[in-house]
Predict the structure of Oxidoreductase.
Amino acid sequence: MDVVLVIGRILFAFIFITSGIAHFAKLEMMTGYAKYKKLPAAKLGVIASGLFFLLGGIYIALGFWVDLGALMLAITLVLAAVIFHNYWKETDATTKQNEMIAFNKDLALAGASLIIFALIYSGAISADAFGPHVGNISFFNK
């Protein structure tokens, strides 16, 4: 089961690691989009979300401070859903549908992140049960 758990962690983390890298590789483009969505301090927001996605994904993939990584992802995902995918403000049917899909995806991923956070933080999953990992799986519980 360790192999399945590691594969699942890597697959879950992959979207965040690649997204975090994209935030930095396409910083100006993403900053322009954040400005379009009226995010105050747009560039700082893009950098912060990119960092949270990148570190959160790496932490989960490696099994190091998994609870912190999952919490970072959950916070960023909920904020992204509300700020960037506010489908309720759209009037074009196609745009509204696309934003609703993105909103729901972000909330589902935030929910999965919170489940991971709760399982690690509560001690319901021990380091041994978590599968191969690098260092301590918990930041908050030592």
